[in-house]
Every structure is written in C-alpha cells, then in structure tokens.
Amino acid sequence: IYYIRRWNKRVTFLITLMFIKTYKIENLLDSNWKERIEIIEKLSNELTTIPKIRFKIYDDKLEYSQKFIKNDKTTFDITLIAETLDYFEKIGFIYGDFNRKNLISNNGIGYIVDFEPSLKQIKDGKEALMFTMPYISINDFKNKTLTSQTDKVGFYYYLKRIKGEVSSSDIVEFKNKIINQIGFIDDEIFSK
User: Fold this and answer.
1) Would you place residue 157 in the very low, low, confident or very high pLDDT band (cuts 50, 70, 90)?
2) Rg of the chain over CA atoms, in angstroms?
C-alpha cells in the first residue's frame, strides 16, 4: 500500500510502502491482546531492530500496519538482534515466531518483523499458537503456550542456519525429537 503525502506547495511526494494485515477481533484469544499491541507499538518506536508498527481497531477488526522493509539480505550485526531478544525477556514480552522469514536485513540493519497481536488465535477454524514449526521449545509445545524459550529456540536455529550448520534434515530431526518426547504430532503443522 502506498501513502502519498504532499510537502510544502511544491509537487514533491513521499512514498511509503506499508505491510498491512487485518485480523478479526473475535479470533484474538489472548485476554491481554490490547496491552500487547500497545507494547509492540512502543517497542517499534524505541528499538532500531523493529520497523515502525501501528494498530488500528475498527468495530470487529484490527489492522496491523508495519513499515515495509525490503529484504536485501545484507550482512548485519546479529548481536543487536540477540540484545533485542534479551530485552524482550527482561520486560516479559514474548515474540513467539522467531524464524528465518521474520528476521530480515536492509542496508546493513537487521529487523525483526511480523509481530502478532495475540499469541493464541483462531486460524483455519481452530485455536492455534502463532509460531512457525518446528521453532518452539518442547515444553511450550507440551504446555500449549509460548514463552521466551520458544524465542531462544528460533534464534538458535536461525544462527545455526546462517552458519551453514543446519539443514532440512536437521529440521526433520528436531521434529522427530518433539515426537519422541511428546508421543504425537500433527504432521499438518510441520508442512506449513
């Protein structure tokens, strides 16, 4: 989505590309989702590792808009992302979906993107935790919740992947580890 603004009386335009998602409010299952979206907006204003994010509530819908960042895959300082995750844990904020698609870089800066307004939502008609398999701690999976442990698991696998130390077979091995510890798994979850 492009927003065009006019500056002064000259015909100069600022074009900002926004990434927008819409949620049905009835599908946001966390009781504190309104507090969560306030925290996300605040974090996006304070931290350089998060693009600007805004939420708007309309009757029965919630609109999420995030400044679009083109992933140019440039090298960036990964310690800033680690510090951001440490800060999240310190303030009790759970990101919940740390995976390679949600960590991008542009112009040498790393960004965490795609924050969910509620960690539990109705998705495809079912109650779901908002994470990407298999990047979840085994305890969180057993307890059907998301904690900072899941954020750490996602970051760990991200680091291993960029170092070339993890492959698709490693992901299958991690899936099997979850199956062995829990005793069951919905294969449909892993196919996403």
Assistant:
1) confident
2) 18
